[in-house]
Each structure stands twice: as structure tokens, then as C-alpha cells.
Amino acid sequence: MYARVLEEAEARLVDLHHDEVQRIALSAVALGASLAATVVYEPLVMPLFLGGLVLGVLGIGAIWRHWDLLDRLADDRDAYSIPAVRAYAARDARMDRRRSNAAQIRAWIHDPLPEDARIVEFTEALEELARELEDEALDLDPASALACRRLVSDPLASPLFNEALPGEDVGSTIVRIRSGFRRRLV
């Protein structure tokens, strides 16, 4: 990504976050005012209530757009210079998420379904990945952690589950994830 595109993306993330906060806060104020209006002046109840609902829906839309932009930016390593993108991906590098991914992988390996031919084919590589995910002496790069989450939980992006993707993508994805492990400095 170019520096200008990154700056625009970061500015868009900030704008969307402000929209989220403002709309949700105004929604709460309008809904609270509608509740208060039941005692003070009843004709205001419905307009305030409907306004609060509309603002709440708009706030949820802003939350969705913010999350979607973060998720799309997380696919580009250049975007990791944006603190919000790096923090978004870093959540997947935490040990609790790594253990969860490892447990999911192990569950597939030990009890594969008949339609999971790719899991059977890559059992050894998946077992090594699970072992590394559980190793607390290793740190995992946020981009690799995000790729791991997508491998185990995204049926459209994961070559393990999406038959439209080439089978050899499973191996290359596992290699890319494993390349993100580094020995933890004490």
C-alpha cells in the first residue's frame, strides 16, 4: 500500500470510530429521554423512541463498517503500521486464541469427517502447527495469527474447507503461518 492510501485508511477508521461512539451515545440519550418523556410530556415519547432506534441502527452500521474495514486492512501487511489494524490482528496472537485454534485443529485431526479429505491429507502439518500454537516459548506474528484464524474458522477463505480453492493452498498457508513463529525473548 502507498503511504497516502494508508493515511486515508487510518483517517477512515478514526471517522468510523467517532461515528460509532456518537451514534450509539445519541441513541442512548434519545431512548433515555423517551423514557423520561413518559412522565413529563407523553407526545414526545414516540419521536424520541423512534429517533433512538434509528440512531442505534446507524451506530450498529458504523460498527459494522469499522470492523469490515479493519478486517480487510488486516490482510495487507503494510496496513500494520496503523495501530488499530495491528491491535485487531494482535488479538489472534494471544495464547488463549492460539490454544483455541490448536484445540480446533486437533479435534479435526482426531475425528475427521469423510468430506474432510484435505484435513486427512495435511494431518502431519496441522499437528505441527497445533503444537507450535500451544508452545508458550514461541511468539506468533499478528499477521500469521490472523491467517491461522482464517484457516480454522473462515469457510470461504480457508483452503481446508473451500473446495473452490486449490488443495495445495493448504500447505502453503500452513507454511506461511508457521513462518510467523519466533522464539520469545525472556
What's the rounded overall pLDDT mean? 92
The SS-based structural class is: mainly alpha
The DSSP helix count reads: 8
Rg is 22 Å
- How many β strands by DSSP? 2
Q: Into which percent range does the helicity of residues fall? A: over 70%
Shape: elongated
Catalogue the unreliable spans: none
Distance, first to last CA? 34 Å
Strand order of the largest sheet: 1-2
Give me the strand/helix succession: HHHHHHEHHE
Main sheet makeup: 2 strands, antiparallel
How many domains comprise the coordinates? 2
Question: Would you kindly provide a brief summary of this structure?
Answer:
By secondary structure, the protein is mostly helical. The chain contains eight helices and two strands. A two-stranded antiparallel sheet has the order 1-2.
